[in-house]
C-alpha cells in the first residue's frame, strides 16, 4: 500500500510545471492587452470620418465668434479691452502696424480720437490735434501739434524724440499735459484762450529769468533769480521753476562725489525743490492772454527792473481757471505766513498725511472741513522726511557718521503751526516772485532739519559715546 502511494505522489509531482504555468498566464495577459488595443483602435477608426481639418476648425471658430447669441456685457468688454491694452505695453514696436496699434491703444485710454490716413496718423481732441507724419517706409518723420487758437502748426521735436526712443510712457505724459490745459468748464470758444493764457504767463516768467541769465554760475543764478532757474516748456511737459537745491541733492551715488550744479543737470534730472506752471479749472478770474512784463532802467542804479502792466480788456479776459504752481513734492510750510499772504484757503494741502501725525490740531475758531490740517512743525518735518515711517523724535533720531554718532531730539514750538502744501494758485506773474521767495525759505528750513532724519538708522548699543543734541526752532528763520 505504501508503494502505491509513493508512486501516485511521484506521478502527481512530475505532472505540474510551474514555469510553463507562468508562461501561459503571461501570454494570456498579453493577448488580452492586444485585444483591448484593437478594440480601442476600432472605435477610433469608426469616428475618424467625423474629424475636421485645421482649416475647417479655424473657420468654425471664427464663425462662432462672429455669431452673437448673447448680449454683450459692458463690464466684460471693458476688462477685455484693458487686458488687450496691457498686452500692447509689452509688445516692442518694430513696424508701422505696431506703431499704429500702440498709438490707437494710448489714444483710447486717454479718451482721444485716433485716425490712420496712410502716411499720416492723427490724435485729436476738440481743442488740439497731433499730426504724426510717416515716410514711405513707415518710419517716423515728424510730429506736428496744432492748437485751435493758433493758425500754424508747430513741429514738436520732443514728441519725435520719445517716439523714436520707443518711450511711450513719456509720450502719454505729454499728451496728458496738452489735454490738462483745456480741462475747463466752459464753451469751446472760451477754452481756446487757455493755451494763449499759458503761453503769455510762461513768456513773462522766462523774461524775468533772463534778467539773471548773464551769469555763468548756475548756483549764483539760483540764488539771485527772483523766479529761480526757469526750464522752458518742452512738448507737453509744463514749464518748471527750480527754486532750491540742497547739497544732498548733488551727491552722486555712482561716483560717490559732489556734482556741480548746471543747467544740463537740472534738465536731465529732477533735482531739488521745483514747481511747474499749470492751468486748472476754478471760479472765474481775470487772466492775461498777452505778455504783461516789460523792463525799464532804474534812475538811481541804472539797472533794468521789471514793470508789470495792469490787466485790462486788451491783454486779459475772464476765464473759469487759475494759474497754479504745483510743487514736485509736498513741503511743510508756515501756516501763519500763508495766512499773511492771503493764501491760507487757496493752496492744495495734503490733509490725509497731516491727519496721522501726533498732536495735530486745528486752529481755533475755524471749521475742520474748510481748512487744511494744521500740525506742529517738527512733527510734520519728521513725518514728511521719513516718508511717513516716523511721527516724532520721542525715541531719538540717530545719525551715524564715520567717526561719531549723533542722536537728535526735536522740541516742539507750539507757536509754529505748519501745513503740507502741494500747490499754490496765482493769477498774475507779479505774484510768482513773492511765492517762490516764501517757498525758498521754507525749503531751506526743511532741508536743514530733515538732514537729521534717517529712518534706516537704529539705536546704537554704545549710548555713552553718542552725542545727544536737542533741536528747538525759535522761528522759521532760526
From TrEMBL:
Gene Ontology cellular component annotations, sorted alphabetically: mediator complex
Name by which UniProt lists this protein: Mediator of RNA polymerase II transcription subunit 1
UniProtKB keywords: Activator, Nucleus, Transcription, Transcription regulation
Family the entry assigns: Belongs to the Mediator complex subunit 1 family.
Transcription regulation listed as a keyword: yes
Domain Mediator complex subunit Med1: start-end pairs: 81-454
Molecular function terms from GO: transcription coregulator activity
Highest taxon above the source species: Eukaryota
PANTHER family: MEDIATOR OF RNA POLYMERASE II TRANSCRIPTION SUBUNIT 1
Function: Component of the Mediator complex, a coactivator involved in the regulated transcription of nearly all RNA polymerase II-dependent genes. Mediator functions as a bridge to convey information from gene-specific regulatory proteins to the basal RNA polymerase II transcription machinery. Mediator is recruited to promoters by direct interactions with regulatory proteins and serves as a scaffold for the assembly of a functional preinitiation complex with RNA polymerase II and the general transcription factors.
Listed transmembrane segments: none
One GO term (biological process): positive regulation of transcription by RNA polymerase II
Compartments in which it is found: Nucleus
